[in-house]
Every structure is written in C-alpha cells, then in structure tokens.
Amino acid sequence: xxxxxxxxxxxxxxxxxxxxxxxxxxxxxxxxxxxxxxxxxxxxxxxxxxxxxxxxxxxxxxxxxxxxxxxxxxxxxxxxxxxxxxxxxxxxxxxxxxxxxxxxxxxxxxxxxxxxxxxxxxxxxxxxxxxxxxxxxxxxxxxxxxxxxxxxxxxxxxxxxxxxxxxxxxxxxxxxxxxxxxxxxxxxxxx
Amino acid sequence: xxxxxxxxxxxxxxxxxxxxxxxxxxxxxxxxxxxxxxxxxxxxxxxxxxxxxxxxxxxxxxxxxxxxxxxxxxxxxxxxxxxxxxxxxxxxxxxxxxxxxxxxxxxxxxxxxxxxxxxxxxxxxxxxxxxxxxxxxxxxxxxxxxxxxxxxxxxxxxxxxxxxxxxxxxxxxxxxxxxxxxxxxxxxxxx
DNA sequence: GTCTATATAATGATAGAC
DNA sequence: GTCTATCATTATATAGAC
Lengths: 191, 191
Hints:
The structure is a homodimer. The longest helix of chain A has 26 residues. Chain A is 81% helix and 0% strand. The first copy, chain A, is built from 10 helices and no strands. By secondary structure, the first copy, chain A, is mainly α. Chain A binds a DNA duplex through helix 3.
C-alpha cells in the first residue's frame, strides 16, 4: 500500500477517535483496527503517540484555514461571514451533541494533561479568533474587535458544552438564534 | 486510622486530581501517594475506580447544594444571588485558568468516555440550572427563566474554557463585567 | 484497617522476518 | 511497507499475612 495513503488513513482515524473518545483514551490498537493495519506497522509511520497528535492538529489547522478562506470568499459581507461561523453549530449539531466542540474539547484535555502539544492546539482557537476579529474590525468595530471575537468564541464554546451534556436539540437552535440576534446591532453601523 | 477519615481523605485527593488531571489520567497510585496509603489498602475503601468517581460526584453535589443554599440565605435579592454565581469566576479565577471549570470539564470527559456516571455528573449542572432558573423566575421572568438560566450557564462555561486555553487574567474580569451588565436590564422589572 | 506480594490485562514501543 | 513476536511498563484489581 502507498506510504502516504496509509499515513493519511491513520491521521484520519486518529482524528475521528480523538474527537469521539479523547486523545488519552484512544489507543494504538483502536486506531490500527480502524485502519486495518497491524500495530507493528504503525510505528513505521509514527514513532510515538504524540507524533500522531501533532499530525492530527496540523491537519485540523489546515482544515480550519481552508474553511475560513472559503467563508471569506463566499460571504458577501463581514456580517454574513460571521453568520457562517455561528451556523457551524447548526451544521455540526449532531456531532456536537455527542462529542462537544472538537476544538474546545481537545484543548481542554491537553490543558489538563499539561501536554506539550497544548500550545499547538491553542493555535486552532487563535485562527478562529484572528479571523473573527478581522470581520468585526471591518464592521467599524476596530476598538473592540478582539473582545467581540473572544465573546463570540466563548458563547459558541459554552453552547457546545451544554449541548453535549444536556443533549437537547432545540437548545442549540435557540442559542444560535440568540447569537444571530446579538450580532445584528453591530451590523447596522457598517454603511 | 479511622475508617471514615481515610475514606474522606481518598475522596478529597481524588476530587483534586480528577479536577487537575482528569478522571482517566488519574491512577490509584497517584491517589494513594497523595493520601499516604498503600494501593492495597485502597481497595478496602473502594472496590473500583468508578466507585471513587461516584463518591467524588456525590461529594460535589453536596458541596454545590451547600453553596447554593448559602447564596440563597445571604443574597438579599435574586439579582444579588445571581451575581454571586457570576462572581465564582472571579473567586476561582486562578484554578479556572489552570484547569477550567470543574463541572464542565468533568462532564465533557465523561460524555466522551460515554461513562455510566455521566448522568450522575450532569446532575451538578441541573442543580445550578434549577437554582438559577428559580432566581430568574423571581425577577418576573417566569416565561423565559429556564432559557436565561441556560444562557448564563453557557456563557460561564465558555469563559472558563477560553480562560484555561488562553490563560489570560484580564479576559475573565472583562467577561464577568459583561455578564453583570447583561444581567442588569432583567433586574429592573422587579419592583 | 493496613500492609506486601502478586495476578492479569492493556498500554506504548521495539526487533527482525518477509 | 507490512507483518508477527516480543519487551518493558503501567494499570486495575485480588489474596492473604499481620
């Protein structure tokens, strides 16, 4: 089998399992079963479990970049772009109810483990924050664009956490509506 | 040594370690070292690791009840009582920056592990929600007391998550101010 | 009630055949 | 590049002496 293909499969499976079960709870055995590769061959592609984590985070960073770039090109205004961000709560609703936010839960776990890759994972949050902050600054809110971006990130995180704990479908929709309503006043000062 | 005393010491140590490192990452060895009791004797008090978790959650439920009852008796108005809740973010700021919210992170971990005790841990959230909901209903917001309580819970969770990831002292203060400001309009409709 | 010694299973990781 | 066999370590958990 092609080297890079197997490597990609491993990263894929690890990404899913880390999200669904957490990093520490996921074992090499579980990943190798899913990829249908023996545990031994595994170490040809990754020398340590941390190396897989590094690759998974790198992958998520790239995916986030791609998604933000898409929103940037597709959204016709900063307001619409920010609404794209808010709506991922709806798009990924089922997974969020089951496993929480992939960014937030990975970061929380790595912070508790005081894991060397925690700074690496934090970068995913920083990506979202920089992008959101940029959108808000375009809404003539330069003075508090950072704060508004952090505020929106925090609310999304809280919604994802409670949604996974209470497992309530309507709750996410209700809070997403509330987020859209919160955003509206900021959009009026644009033109 | 007294039976119940050792038992209490074990629950205490486990409570701290589960908070600081997570449930799964914490081993019997670590707990026994902290309590200064041999691993063997450990099983005299708790038969399985899950039994310790059950005891820890039970302990947290009791502590939460006590705290909410105190706020109930000390706060002179529903508004002041809700502000007591908001201010735990300030009171526990250092720990939250290091380890996140003890309620949220435990629940998130148990959800990912699909652990049998997850329903048990969820009850801690339910306690806070019921109490907050009660306060809001006293502010003549019966129609949306539940929603306001969930909203406040979610924002607290999001703040705790981001505070632990970004490790920024001023951020918590800033968002707490924002929470107090958010609450104010609801308090005017009281008398 | 506390200890030491031990059983058992799973983990991350390595060596070497093919 | 993939495999089987194996190692060292750690984990939860048990048995039995004191």
